[in-house]
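ugh ok so i messed up the first submission bc i forgot one of the chains. this is the corrected input, ALL of the components this time, i swear. 929 residues overall. if the numbers dont match what u have on ur side tell me asap before i send this to the collaborators (the ones from the other lab, u know who)
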Amino acid sequence: MSDSLNLSQERIAQELPDRYRPVIDYELCKGCKRCVRECSYSALEFRDGKVRPLRGCVACGRCTAICPTGAIEIRLLPYHFPPHSTFTERIRRSIISQANTGGVLLSSCGTDLEYPMIFDELLLDAAQVTNPSIDPLREPIETITFLGRRGGKLTSSEKKGLLEDEDIGPVIMMDMPIMIGHISLGAVSYPAQKALFKAACDLNIIAGSGEGGLHSDFYAYADHINSEVASGRFGVTPDYLKRVAAVEIKIGQGAKPGHGGHLPGEKVTDLISQTRMIPTGTDALSPYPHHDIYSIEDLQQLICALKEATDYRIPVGVKIAAVHNVAAIASGIVRAGADFITIDGFRGGTGSAPRVIRDHAGLPIEVAVAVVDKRLAEEGLRNKITLCAGGSIRSSADMIKILALGADVAMVCTAALVAMGCRVCQQCHRGLCAWGIATQKPELTARLDPEIASARITRLFTAWNEELKEVLGAMGIDAVESLIGNRDRLRYIGPNPKIAEIMGVKHVGEGWG
Amino acid sequence: MDEERSFPKSSFFLSNGAFSSNESGEMSLRSGSMRRREGYQLGGCGIAGCLSLDGEPISGEKIATMLTTMSERENGLGAGYACYGLFPERRDEFCLQFFFDDEDVKNSVEEFLKDHGNITKDEKVFTKKSTTLKPPFPLVWRFFFRPVERREWRGNQKLSEEDYVVRLVMHVNQHVDGAFCISSGKDMAVFKGNGYSFEISDFYDIQRYRGKMWISHSRFPTNSPGWWGGAHPISILDWAVCHNGEITSYGVNRKFVEMEGYSCTLLTDTEVVAYLWDILVRKHGLPINLAAFAMAPWYYHDIKHLDPQNQKLATLIRVTYKEAFLNGPFSILVGRREPEITMIALADRKKLRPLIVGQSSDEGMFFAASEECAIRAIEPNAETWTPNAGSPAIAQVRNGIIRDGLESPFWGEWNE
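and heres the new structure output, hopefully the right one now
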């Protein structure tokens, strides 16, 4: 008796209540069953002549988007547990879940905890009388941005009578200060990655390949691809490296600082297997550290090796997560010879991350960029390197603020996915993405038209770039390089002036002098 | 604009209030008193310069006439004059001119200089009692100075004599309370203060000086305080800069000059302009027109139309010196003594501030000013023209007008 009772209790305890439920308006529902077919989480069924909700809705919004009559509404279910401000519902769900499984909780798409968004506590400047504003519809405003290393000094050569910069590395010219971050084939589907790459080409910007190598179909876009060399070395061959526009060593990632990568075996289809050069169905594991990098000297050697492998024709960068000592680390990376550094803030997204890391490790990109920019300037290194920054850049305003805080280029990932259809339901790690983005299931990936998705990304970033021009014009600045690290153009309005002090941003109300 | 230091560092900081007036509060402007009573003023800053193409010295009276003619462009919160070719008998010595709060500060700076070189002569800069400038006035003093060559700065630190003097100036401006170095070049000096242009010319008795080149400025500050040290010209070594405008890229430019070891202490965005010229031309060895291109570059869509070599050079300059790009509206007059006394007149690439240049009918003088009236005031028959946006007009004593500001940016640059 006790055994059966215990089993029953165990089963009861496993059941975590749903947070969302689709509600059908039967006045409107025609019973076409499209929603049932589209729900990859099996949260709907057609029974007894009616669409009926089942358990497991994640609020991905696919059913509401697909319903021809608008008959479906997704409701956030009321609080399931007795109210308690310490043991919140989120905390109790975690406890129950871990008591069920004994494992590490996984999640996706960046932390959803309510940390203050420093971006929202910064206000931009605008021109007035003595510095007139500029109308971007009537006057040119430049947003061209270069990615790569600079020497910081031109020297004249008596022989040629020319000026040259012996230290300048290969640089990439982009039409706007945006790069699409690393989203690997595997984490996202073939059509999703194709859409990202195509958009990068159409916009003349750079898109990250992610750490999954580069599918041969995408060689056509290679001159707009920043390929990633992660600890797993998936798909990395000299041939592939020589095709791309830039190569980036991934040391860390904002969503999971101190962590490597993991693509579950069930996502490793034939396509992924070919691209990553690993057997089908095996887990693709990128170890936490690079096993040939245990020091800055080792990193320097890999940078040199990659430059050698690519004949010094493309910039070699290093991506790190924003961690507490990020400024000193960045300084070391510049000195190790990187042509660009990408700093990824702690709100950055991912396809799968241990929740405890995602939610609690690292620091906001706003602060990280400001301190790195300041430190590199103090050490006389800032004009040698391109600084890219990402991790929760959600809008053109965020992009403009991160540039003013010191980044040359804003790295954007999640916003590009949202443009394609993603609704940030945070279920990427399950591989069931109903929008055909974060999945490898053929029936789901077929849902995403890369042409349409690409056009949506192109329109989004074009709009952001136009908004950037509007803001630059309003500031009386006609080229984006005059905004980079120009913290005079920001004021802090949040509750913690210490943050402003660390970022080198004056408080609202403070003038020039 | 300086964040590191709590000001006022000096007692003459902001000493002159909002407007120049005598003790009774009566305005004694040569012009403008009517406007003052009506409560509004016209203008922006005024800049004026003249250079003797034939090497004949020019009286300070002429530049004062040029500048004060444009009285609409000032509001009494700063004016100044820089004269080149001023000390021919001491042309190889640095003339360090200072504002001091008092004798004690002067003595401490003197001791500091003695520790780092030889003072061959020092003297109080002549000033007249002013009835309209409001006290306290700084003590204006000049030292003729030769730095002592030491192994560590020529050897280990690889500093030139000029770099060494820059360090001394930065040290005083940053760390010595009550002292500001206002000019530090050879065979030149700056005379400036917080007042109207005519008041400053009276205060220093500008007409007592004769030089081969003058540049001058009257100020209408809007986003930085009007104070003695912040008046233009802003000078470092033999560079002097008069600026009408606002540098919206200040934060970026400041970072760049600080990386090169300069510290911004004068609470004005113009300061970075002077340091940029010193860095790009003296330290990095760029020709003047290329340094001007770095500060006011062509748009990329225009660069595309250059021939391939110039396209490459233009792009290289833009990429390498993007932190030296002066954004925002400006017109500047820049003076330099090396290798020959030179005036550079440059407006921003959108030409948001006025700039006109001219030449006397006998071709002996070159002029530059915010307004034509300034040139006509001393040379009614001058030929005048407006340089292109972002294109420097360059004139040199004895070498004539090297660029009239109407050329393509890299004219004469390639030696093929």
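quick check: The longest helix of chain A spans residues 450-475. that seems consistent at least. DSSP finds 16 helices and 23 strands in chain A.
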